[in-house]
Design goal:
Elements: H1 21-32, H2 39-51, H3 53-66, E1 73-77, H4 83-91, E2 96-101, H5 104-113, H6 115-119, E3 123-127, E4 140-146, H7 155-163, E5 166-176, H8 185-201, E6 205-212, E7 219-225
Length: 226
């Protein structure tokens, strides 16, 4: 699968000459945090992710495609600051929502955002990775991951492990919007097909690539059935 860096912040054209070396260095450090947030800059990245309109748009679109029901059991992989978890908990109020993320800072952000649902036992968050997901008491109806698969070292193997957590006939959604300066809608289309191919290699079927034009570059969501 093609690996694209996800800067998390749109490129500001013409700023290179005006920025000081220190400003550029700080920007590079912040950009690196969107893959594995940690420390102070990781918290800044989480703050940005939780408030960017494009992030919320991707989340809402993905959830609409999954068609989450009130009694569904749903797992999000790479939940970041927990915005999708919060929305899911309001939809699946008679169900169960779980999330895994490899960043302790993001677990803390998401736990604070979803404190009430966690206390009620409707949401559970784990610090874990897609390559080593925890065991759960029961299978899930839906699993989703948004702008995270390109950080996985072995996407196919991770998808195989996640498929074991999904009930037969359950639905998986993998959403990705490339954010490099050179990315185009054609880049999104290519990535969508690569994600579909990886899902098929992992044992999923009926892979359906959805493309939506939003912002400067289109976003892809691949739906697949276990």
């Amino acid at each position: 699968m093609t690996t694209l860096k996800y800067p998390g912040l749109e490129h500001q054209p013409g700023g290179g000459e005006k920025q000081s070396r220190l400003a550029r260095a700080l920007r590079r450090l912040l950009v690196s945090q969107f893959g594995r947030p940690s420390g102070f800059l990781g918290n800044v990245a989480g703050f940005i992710m939780a408030r960017r309109p494009s992030n919320l748009d991707r989340i809402r679109w993905t959830l609409s495609l999954l068609d989450v029901k009130p009694h569904d059991r749903v797992l999000e992989v790479g939940f970041g600051p927990g915005v999708a978890i919060e929305l899911l908990s309001k939809i699946a109020r008679q169900g169960f929502v779980a999330g895994i993320d490899h960043s302790q800072e993001m677990v803390r952000h998401a736990a604070k955002r979803n404190a009430e649902a966690i206390r009620a036992g409707r949401v559970v968050l784990y610090r874990a990775s897609a390559s080593a997901p925890p065991e759960f008491n029961g299978l899930f109806d839906k699993i989703l991951t948004i702008n995270a698969i390109h950080f996985w070292e072995d996407p196919v193997e991770c998808l195989r492990k996640l498929r074991k957590l999904l009930r037969p006939g359950g639905l998986m959604a993998v959403t990705l919007q490339p954010r490099t300066r050179t990315a185009t809608d054609a880049t999104t289309a290519i990535l969508g097909q690569e994600i579909a191919a990886n899902l098929e290699r992992a044992g999923f079927s009926h892979c359906d690539v959805k493309i939506r034009k939003t912002g400067s570059v289109a976003v892809a969501c691949v739906l697949a059935t276990n």
